[in-house]
Design brief:
By secondary structure, this protein is of the alpha+beta class. It is built from 5 helices and 10 strands, in the order H-E-E-E-E-E-E-H-E-E-H-E-H-E-H. It has helices at 22-37, 107-118, 140-149, 157-163, 178-185, and strands at 42-45, 50-56, 64-70, 78-82, 85-94, 99-101, 122-129, 134-139, 154-156, 165-167.
Length: 186
């Protein structure tokens, strides 16, 4: 870009797909820290189980994992306890404006949520339609209802509008999903 005083600035239009879904995840991590710091709930992001195959050691403090693989398929992103109830949920982000692709959530994650609900836990997914700035909490039972009764490869936005709770971003906590848990489950 050329500015009036003769300065030039290069604009990098490269798209980085490496951190898709990280905005929602970051907001949820900030929210969970708020819940923990204020003794509201204990909810953590689950680490992804990996097997490390190779590490480069340029020096002891700068070890770099250069080759790793997933041990087993991960279950869901977050779990913890709130008001004596076990909570387990998956967080997903999509740039799609009309639907949430079911390919974004794996079958083993859905089966895990089915087991959580069967055993009395609270299961749900949080889906961010990032291009629309809309975030929804969809109860696992509504997710199962859609999957079990449709042959679609995506959940329409209208289904979220009708069957989920839309959440707003705020300052503290960032995404107060527990107020929707109170409304739906407690």
């Amino acid at each position: 870009m050329n500015y009036p005083n003769g300065l030039r600035k290069n604009i990098n239009n490269t798209i980085n797909y490496g951190n898709r879904g990280m905005n929602l995840e970051e907001d949820l991590n900030i929210t969970n820290k708020y819940y923990l710091d204020n003794d509201i709930a204990v909810i953590y992001k689950k680490p992804t189980p990996i097997t490390i195959n190779h590490v480069d050691y340029p020096n002891r403090k700068d070890a770099v994992i250069t080759n790793a693989k997933f041990k087993i398929p991960s279950t869901t992103d977050y779990n913890g306890i709130y008001k004596g109830k076990y909570i387990d949920f998956e967080a997903k982000e999509t740039a799609n404006k009309t639907s949430f692709p079911l390919a974004n959530i794996h079958m083993h994650q859905i089966e895990h949520l089915r087991k959580i609900v069967k055993h009395g836990g609270i299961g749900f997914i949080i889906v961010s339609f990032s291009s629309l700035n809309r975030i929804f909490l969809l109860d696992a039972e509504k997710l199962f209802e859609f999957i079990d009764n449709n042959n679609r490869k995506s959940i329409p936005l209208e289904y979220f509008i009708s069957n989920a709770k839309e959440m707003k971003i705020s300052l503290r906590p960032r995404i107060d999903y527990l107020k929707y848990i109170d409304w739906r489950f407690l």
